[in-house]
Amino acid sequence: MITRLTDRMNTFPFSSHLIAHRCVLSVVALSLSFAAVAQDNEEGNKVVVSGSIQSDILFPQNDDKIGTEDYSEWGLTNSFAEVNITSNELDAGVRFEYLDHPLPGFHKDYAGWGVPFFYVKGHNKNTELTLGTFYEQFGSGFILRTYEERSLGIDNSLLGGRLKYSPTQGVNLTALIGKQRRYWGWNDSWVGGADMELSLDQWIRPLQTSNTYLTLGASYVTKSESDDEVLLHDATHRYNFPEYVGAYDLRLRLQKGGWNVLAEYARKGQDPSQSNGYIYRKGYVAMLSTSYSQSGMSLLLQAKRSDNMSYRSRRTMPSADPDNSSYINHLPAFTMEHTYALAAHYPYATNPDGEWAYQAEMGYTFKRHTLLGGKYGTKVKANFSYVRAINQNIHEDGTNGYGSAFWKWGNDRYYQDLNIQVEKKVSRDFKLNLMYMNQFYNKTVVEGKGGMIHSNIFVAEGKYRFNNKLTLRGEAQYLTTAQDEHDWAFGLLELSVLPHLMFTVSDEWNCGATDLHYYNGYVTYTTGAHRIQLGYVRNRAGYNCSGGVCRYVPASKGATISYNYNF
Fold first, then answer.
1. What's the DSSP call for residue 205?
2. How are beta strands 2-4 and 354-366 bridged, if at all?
3. Residue 222 host element (H or E)
């Protein structure tokens, strides 16, 4: 596991940038050629051109009271333009990105512009071949998930090739290889993998006759990365890194009637990295998810245990690099993703080092013309999530790191959330949503410092329709806590004037410690496929999260313009 400095072997890093640039030019040329000749194709080969434009612009202003950064640029923008061409047998696409002066909170390496996404895809009845850049997910993503999430600055697509093949009904095979994108380049390591899914209900007649669906899945992913010189604390020895790190995933999904059960297990080989403190412990994750639904009722029960499952295509990262860079895999959070501002004030980010996570949710609709249902019925939903540390004993760099009993919890509670929501249609024109939330948030674990924060959150949302064109929606929220910055209040009014206009004003007020107001005002105009929004904002610093992945957003103030177009 550890090698003396005198035993070091020379390595030659592989540069993929020149190859990537050539691929861009080749794919763009193929796309344009395809578009030009597509109209001349034989009758019946339908060609569809689609795409989108998205541009978000902030004209920043300094505000010392909320701690905004001092920007020398007059404007900051994240802008994207994408074109896709599809036909019966051949697809192609490119995406242009302009991020030379990115919005606040995006990593400095995010700045740049160019065409980082491009592909050509050929397909027929049972085969699909993609060359260029692509996104893929095996199972729940425990060992492979590449995706784009612009709000978080994530785009970890693969540059290479992917083959999908379905030799017979109920059998789906995927094989791929490529290099992973990291901002405006590609990491040197190669990522390869294969996935197989078998739908047994397609072959077994008793399953078909009983309306039972049974799917088995298996995946394997490996990364090949050259050695790095990383010294131990004594400066006389260095780590001996494995050239190949493999991971496999096994899963089973059973669906019958309203029941749906998913069991999944994944294991990763020794993968010492900066993320885990250069330990040689293998990684594990196991999940069991059960849901049931029928008319008027739903139930969800989930449990997941993960241990040392940080899986990146680059083992050593710059010290200032954010946690979401170069991940090959994804560990979904078993916590409710809140949309109300104060309910999302303390969002949870999945801990890749290890955690026990549980979630239970139940929804029920009281029927119309009953005691609790009233004239229009009443919907009630309760959700509980709980995340705790796994048990770990002695941790030491350059070894397996620690031992961990599977069923034993660790000492720290990371997160807990109990919330109850009631959705009630009071009259034909007025709807009311109420929510209460009790939350424990370990700020030290998630953000590095701050201790445990216990909060109670109350939300009331009302929506009144004056007529077919005019609707007013309002929110009133309150968060109370004795820790951190203490109490917060939030108010919002949103007036929709169909079919084109919407006016929105909101204020988030820290009434407990700083007495600061964070206000937003927007005017949104929509016509056809076009949407433009003008605004003026004063936003607090905090975390923006999606699916258990978070990005820190610093405080900002200024005028905004947002434009979206889909064709």
1. H
2. unpaired
3. strand 212-224
Classify 260 as helix, strand or coil: strand
- The H or E element spanning position 208 is helix 205-209
Q: How far is CA 394 from CA 352, 412, 462, 545, in A?
A: 18, 16, 53, 32
SS3 97: strand
Read off the amino acid at residue 147.
Answer: Y
128 neighbors 164 (Cβ within 8 angstroms) = yes
Q: Find the helix or strand (DSSP H, E) in which 252 lies.
A: strand 244-256
What Rg, from alpha-carbon coordinates, does the chain have? 26
Tokens of 237: 């020895």
HSE value, Cβ hemisphere, 13 Å, CA-based, for 566: 4
Are 478 and 487 a contacting pair, CB within 8 Å? yes
From the number of C-beta atoms within 10 Å of its C-beta (0-12, 13-18, 19+), residue 231 rates as: exposed
Q: Are 496 and 513 in contact (CB under 8 A)?
A: no
The rounded distance, in Å, linking the Cα atoms of 128 and 405 is 44
146 touches 179 (CB < 8 A)? no
3-state secondary structure of 444: helix
Q: DSSP letters along 22-47, please? A: HHHHHHHHHHHHHHHHHTTSPTT---
Quote the CA–CA distance of 325 and 181 in Å, as a whole number. Answer: 9
Q: Is 521 within 8 Å of 542 (Cβ atoms)?
A: no
E-assigned strands of 135-207? 148-149, 154-155, 158-165, 171-182, 185-186, 190-199
CB 51 within 8 A of CB 558: no
pTM across the whole model: 0.87
Could you tell me if 31 and 50 are in contact, meaning their C-beta atoms sit under 8 angstroms apart? Answer: no
Say if residues 372 and 318 touch (Cβ distance below 8 Å).
no
Separation in Å, CA 334 to CA 262, 341, 356, 502, 542? 14, 20, 10, 34, 21
| pLDDT (tens place) for every residue of the chain, 567 residues total | 544 333 333 333 334 444 444 444 444 444 444 444 444 444 567 899 999 999 999 999 999 999 999 888 899 999 999 999 999 999 999 999 999 999 998 888 899 999 999 999 999 999 999 999 999 999 999 999 999 999 989 999 999 999 999 999 999 999 999 999 999 999 999 999 999 999 999 999 899 889 999 999 999 999 999 887 776 666 667 788 899 999 999 999 999 999 999 999 999 999 988 888 888 999 999 999 999 999 899 999 999 999 999 999 998 876 556 667 899 999 998 999 999 999 999 999 899 889 999 999 999 999 998 988 889 999 999 999 999 999 988 766 667 888 888 888 989 999 999 999 999 999 999 999 999 999 999 999 988 899 999 999 999 999 999 999 999 999 999 999 999 999 999 999 999 999 999 999 999 999 989 999 999 999 999 999 999 999 999 999 998 888 888 888 999 999 999 999 999
Strands 430-442 and 452-465: antiparallel
How far, rounded to the nearest angstrom, does the alpha carbon of residue 433 sit from its chain's CA centroid?
27
